[in-house]
Amino acid sequence: DDDIFSSAFCENSEKLINVHLFALAAKYYSLSNLGVCTPIEDVLEALKGDSEGATGIKPDEFMNNKKSHEVQVMSELVDSIANYCGIKQVIDIGSGKGYLSSFLSMQYNLKVYGIDSSSSNTNGAHERNRKLKKHWRAYQSRGKENLKSQHLEKANDRPVESEINCKTINKELLHNANSLPNQDQVIIQDLVPSCGFTETATLKTNTEAEADLMTGTQSHETKLSDEVLAILNVLPADAVEDFSSSHNCVELCEEEKVQRKMTSLQTKARKSSESNLYFPLTSCITAETELSDIITDLEDCMMVGLHTCGDLAANTLRIFTAKPEIKAVCSVGCCYHLLSEEFENREECHDQVWGFPMCQYLKDKGWCCGRNARMSACLALERVAVGQMLPTESLFYRAVLQVIIEEIYGVTKSDRHVGKTFSKSSSFVDYVRRSLKKLELDDSKLLDSCIMDYYEKYKHRMNELEAFNMLKVVLAPCIEVLILLDRLCYLKEQENIAWSGLVKLFDPVKSPRCYAVIALK
């Protein structure tokens, strides 16, 4: 009841007088309590998604815990949507270093275009993807090694020694396989410099072992050949051909030759397609962006965005509604403080496309959040609730710095940023001097003693500042709700949308910006 919650504030002074009621009101208006979210399990079920995901390895082999969690959950959902819509092309907006893009392409065989405005990000994504592919095939082959050893043991009636850390085999080794001594051990260097692995594999090349492997009943021969060829799929296609032709001790039946040729061609095709599954591109995306100018083979596709910054999340939804080729969207936004607001400064900019509000409902009301509210929306209540407290000291440093800048330099507004100066500073004096240099203000005006006087003057108010910031944390989910519901309402206002919803994708402790806006045409 709004009337009950309003009594948290004094009617005359409008000051907060009931903190408990304030917290209850904030909880009441949080997204988890409003009942507007669709559970991800329901979405996957409706899409006929497989809750176990594709077979393969977990991304935590290549990413930190937070990124691994985000990529694994989101990629499964994206794959389910793509399958439901019958599409194979995905456009990852604000793809950054390509974590999601590369995982979607390798794990789910989707053709992904990752677009980022930073060339250093896309160049880094190219290099990272190149290395990742080599790791990926290596890790995927690990699961086959036990099976391989078992079949070779049965075929040769003797154990085959193998100690495998990583799986990459070069062509030269296979070309020279017949010249290797029996039971010789070969050290195979991994192709990935950062991996640093070597592997020791024992190769049997004597005629007796080959004959044992390739002879027997027709059914046994076919069964073994399939299994061996499946193992050899990790090798370059021409190496597979050379390896098969080297077994000249046995006359292969025509059926077996055709089967091996087909397998070789399939392997070549797979290798060729794999090399072109992920394309990092550099471009700045706006609401007016023509994707066909960036992607020459644009086809029916879906757009995704994992923590698209500021206005980019809003523009992703606008492009989705405007382009008929884009059949679905899955967007997780972040950096609400960087959103542009139509009614914040009340300036007439008729051709400007704003990040907030998006929906006509809030536009008609002339709704405005303001920078302070948007900054608050970025805070992580769930993390604070489990003991990951706010950085009180650095916030205190920043607050006192602002007083100094206003009183000594007369500056109340600046386009420059202090950034992460606190972590590099040895003391408050050092922090102030570093910050003034970043703001291009003359720090010679200030003596160290003067700086410390400000510190001492406000030190007793540190607890007050912490309490104030905790109130902002409590309010954060309510402001995030407003921004997310604005985006959902915008989609509901469109005529070409079959379904749209908000879905909680991530564990908010691991990833505070955990809600996805999803829509299908």
From TrEMBL:
It comes from the Eukaryota. Residues 66-341 form the Methyltransferase domain. The gene is Mettl25. Coiled coil: none annotated. This is MET25 protein. Gene3D superfamilies: Vaccinia Virus protein VP39. It holds the Pfam family Methyltransf_32. It comes from Erithacus rubecula (European robin).
